Amino acid sequence: MEMKAAQSAVIGRMKVADAARYIGLSQSTLDTMRSKGRGPRYLRIGGRVYYRKDDLDAYIEAGVVETADSRAIA
Questions:
Q1: For residues 28-54, b (16+ Cβ closer than 10 Å) or e, as one string?
Q2: pTM, 2 dp
Q3: Taking the domain 2-63, which CATH number applies?
Q4: pLDDT for 68 beyond 90
């Protein structure tokens, strides 16, 4: 199983289960978000769904909420 994840990362994309783990969601939550047109960008290749790490990182970064305290630090 780890070998498949490593092979997936080598070619620059993750399977849905790996992507869900990476961003801390269940696979079913990620599937539901995708079906509703929400969540991180993804690739569809030959009917299969993949996620790129850069897109997952951008999705996480977009969720950052600035607070009065965090703005004072910057």
A1: eebeebbeeeebbebeeeeeebbbbee
A2: 0.78
A3: 1.10.10
A4: no
